[in-house]
Amino acid sequence: MAIDYQSLAVRGVQALSPYQPGKPIEELARELGLNPAEIIKLASNENPLGPSEKALEAARQALSELCLYPDGNGFNLKQALSKRLNVGMDQITLGNGSNDVLEVITRCFADADSEVVFSQYAFAVYPLVTQAIDAKGVSVPAREWGHDLDAMAEAVTDRTRLVFVANPNNPTGTVHTAEAIESFLKKIPENVLVVLDEAYCEYLTGDQYPDGVELLDRFPNLIVCRTFSKAWGLAALRVGYSISSPAIADILNRVRQPFNVDTVALSAATAVLEDEEYLQRSRDVNTAGLRQLQDAFDRMGLSYIPSAGNFVAVEVGEQAMGVYQSLLAHGVIVRPIAGYGMPRHLRVSVGLPEENERFIEALAQALTASGLSD
Ligand SMILES: *Cc1c(COP(=O)(O)O)cnc(C)c1O
């Protein structure tokens, strides 16, 4: 009898379904015979500005070192982050994207006997990394699409090892104030780690929102995760990091791959931290683009979840997949989020003004075609 090799996989992995990324431009071009230059991708919350010139220049220079292993400690990048964030270098753990850090955290602090708490509609990676180690994921029903922080605190049991909080959250764009996050943290037992995922924190405007790093002194069970993939515009290079107590960082650094961030990525990320002008432009383009999209939805009578990120989830109704397909045919890639339990919504990332406009026009046509415009 032939062996079913899939049955040999460890239990958590057998039940795993892989992360569904946004459709790549090249793939759509192949499928529809379109010119890749005419396709716009507003599907993965990428920075529409293109990379920072400073990052590009540093990346080019790093190419001459391709035959050498990277600095496994990421000294220069950690030093730059440590200055910028006013934390010790020993509090930082670098990752191959913050996804890598989220996974390492889970493997370090939870196992098959643990419970891991996250919100309904929260970032897909939390249930995924939980499932991979066969821990029990506890998905807490959302409140108005956002995290119900009170219910999440109540969901903590003596088996809970980790709680994931995305602030702002992807794909809903919901955000909690500093006050709400602090009162939540006060309710979580000290031996339960809270992962505050701040992938979109650079886009926040207004001082009512928390800076996770400032909470670390008061909440030693806190781990803050951030990324270079969004506002810093380096998604392809895969660089993310966490900031925690030195004790937690020491554990994470034992388990991460020794060279998990490559030389080009380290150099570009270190350089982009000097490009304050780029960051400001990222924010400005995002603020204007969010307004452009949300105003258009208002005009079209579509409801959407007001977003604090660089994307918006808009409700297009039962035929969301049809609308998605129709947008693809117009060369516009957005993200269906039925996999998040939001089958009536599509998530669109903020693009440049002309990209947003093209999306809005294509959406209007798609809705007319599916008879949903009225
Ligand atoms: C995009 C995103 C990340 C970051 O992913 P990287 O692996 O750093 O590219 C983390 N958390 C959330 C909620 C995100 O949306």
Order of helices and strands: HHEHHEHEHEHEHEHEEHHHEEHEEEH
Average pLDDT taken over every residue: 96
**Main beta sheet: strand number and arrangement?**
7 strands, mixed
Structural class: alpha/beta
Could you walk me through the main structural features you see in this protein, from its secondary elements to its overall organization?
A seven-stranded mixed sheet has the order 2-8-7-6-5-3-4, with helices on both faces. Strands 9-10-13-12 form a four-stranded antiparallel sheet, with helices on one face. It has two domains: 5-50 and 277-369, Alpha-Beta Complex (Aspartate Aminotransferase, domain 1), CATH 3.90.1150; 66-272, 3-Layer(aba) Sandwich (Aspartate Aminotransferase, domain 2), CATH 3.40.640. The protein has helices spanning 11-14, 25-32, 53-62, 75-85, 98-109, 125-132, 149-154, 178-187, 212-215, 246-255, 263-272, 276-300, 320-329, 353-369; strands at 40-41, 92-95, 115-119, 136-140, 160-166, 193-197, 222-227, 240-243, 304-305, 311-315, 332-333, 335-336, 345-349. The model has no long low-confidence stretch (mean pLDDT 96). It starts with 10 loop residues before the first helix and ends in a 5-residue tail after the last helix. Helix 5 crosses helix 6 and helix 12 packs parallel to helix 14. Helix 6 (125-132) links the parallel strand 3 (115-119) and strand 4. With 374 residues, it is an alpha/beta fold. The protein contains 14 helices and 13 strands. Bound molecules: pyridoxal-5'-phosphate. Pyridoxal-5'-phosphate is lined by residues 45, 97-99, 123, 166, 170, 197, 199, 227, 229-230, 235, 240. The modification N6-(pyridoxal phosphate)lysine is found at residue 230. Its EC number is 2.6.1.9. Belongs to the class-II pyridoxal-phosphate-dependent aminotransferase family. Histidinol-phosphate aminotransferase subfamily. Pathway: Amino-acid biosynthesis; L-histidine biosynthesis; L-histidine from 5-phospho-alpha-D-ribose 1-diphosphate: step 7/9.
